[in-house]
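Quality-control log, excerpt.
Job 1 of 2 completed; input and output follow.
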Amino acid sequence: MTANPVRVAVVGIGWWSNILAEGVLRTSGALQIDSCYSRSTDKRSSFADKYECKAANSYQEILEDETIEGIINTTPNHVHLETTRQAAAAGKHVFLDKPIANTISDGREITRVCKDAGVVLSIGYQRRRQSQFRWIKRRIDAGGFGRLVQAEANISRDREGKIDLSSWRYQEAGMPGGVMLQIGIHYTDVLEMLLGPVTAVSAMSAQLVLPGDNPDVSNLVMEHENGAISNLTASYASASEYYMMNIYGKQASAFYNWFDGLRYFERGKDQPVVVPCEENDEIAEELVEFADCIRGDRVPEMGGEGAIKSLAVIRAGVLSVEEGRRVEVVEVL
């Protein structure tokens, strides 16, 4: 453990808080979980026992604890603003799981209160950090793809029989757009990282398998600022978990899928080459970055402004579904 770990509290205990807590344990002591809070006594007691931290009796107790430097916030999207506002007012830095909020206005206010308070706001978008996408990004920046023209992607999971309809994650009020916002936003983010900003979205959604009131299949066709077009399918109704992303340039293309890894195909060659990409710990990496930002050594790769723009792509997609038309991203900003 480092001599001066960033002492954090975890707020909003659920399955993802455990994923992040496990990630904290892999940061070589960059962070240390000192406290936790959930409205559920059982959840916070169980979390405290598992991660050997204090179970706070209230969020206010954490905010008043001067030894706590940061909040790892995995509360429901619709309370991101209030929980972050309180943290910022108490001088606590915030690691907030994506999306920044359900609405652009909340995202802007979250960004403002953190900036005004002088605290770090880091938004968790771990998939952009995966080694295959970093490799593609480096090659694009080096000119290895030529003009970028197109991309296609798929992010799918099997959630049949695995969802809790009482959870905010599976209700339209808590997760507007359903699968589009919950997991699709990961790959819209990666596509923007690789191809550049999205300017317009045409989308369709359907509810085919899962119960409840939210779409379990969505498709987005996105127009990028550089003229490229990308297509993303997000699904909770698939037979298995699956991830795919193909990036097409005039001089080269990259093909990635979860089972076969990454391949790179240059124009004029007969065969693609396999690109070895070691699996990296993207969860630990984003948490180490958060600690470094608090210590003043870095700035967040995904801060409030970037997260607002990322959310706007999804909000444009939701509006496109509702109104059956192409929506420019500036309309929702």
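Job 2 of 2 completed; input and output follow.
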Amino acid sequence: MTILFAGCSFTNGMELENKKKNRFGNIVAKEMGHLEWNEGKIGAGNDYIQRTVQNAVIGHKRYFSSPLETIGQKTHKYESMVPAVGKRRQFDALRNKLKPREWEQDADAWYDGKIDGVYKQVFQNNRTYEKEGWPDLVVCMWSGINRLENLRYSAITKDWSWVVSAWGQFTLEKDNWKAGLDSTVYIDKQYEPGESDYYRGYVMRIRNANYNLRLTIGNMMAVKYMLKAKGIPQLHYLFSSGQYKPLLPLLDYKTYENTNNWWDSMDLNRQQCVDELPFLESEGFYDMAQRNKCRFGVKDHPLEKAHALMAERIIGDIKKNEFLK
């Protein structure tokens, strides 16, 4: 019997000394006599959570988490990718003016023709197939609303992988709810030269918190009603209240449909969303850890005491709802 845990680095147990033992997912599964199936991914957003739960259920294959093992490696030689002179002038004219971040300097060096080298593509596995079927319980810890993923074709390895964009520093402009210009965002380094600038511009200046919140609620609704249709018990939590409670009033903003003309949308308001998803107003894992004066890692992840408290909370909810009887 398995419990599926979906989320970001908080669910994964990042910065724990022994995450396989001490993350809340393992503590809960062990207490309930089940196997832990943990799909927490560092930097993941809510589109990832919806995709993962959907695929896990519709794929009809049960897994459980096993020790991380390296199962293969490929070595790729790559040459600097310098655009032709004319193309470079055109590209320079279009470059997004938001300043690059320090962790993307190697991508900029690609563009300037300074890098030739070798990239090692390491393949790993951390799950074991059990049998056909689906989890006995799904626990989602919803991530930040402003994160998103992309199925990226690698300029080095020449294959496809799901990659995330995550924030190092994040502020919001209150007039349009876009990311502030002092925000910093991680963009994967294996795009073609210049593409990271376009992607950063999209994440920071095209997407906005009003849209991202509504999209996240769509992710949550899709997971809720798919699991309900399959008869699979479910529990939902927030990784932090900070990206939810202060922004819920945005759901009461007037919105329109617009092509050439404007007409009223059928968007749900705050009360309708909260009635469907009461956990939107709940205390997040991060906030619970702060309230209980738990220690955090250097990258601001809750550590052992916080995971033990979160496990206790989930176990209490399982028993209260009479799941896994």
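Post-run check on job 2. The chain has two domains: 1-69+125-146+207-325, 80-115+149-205.
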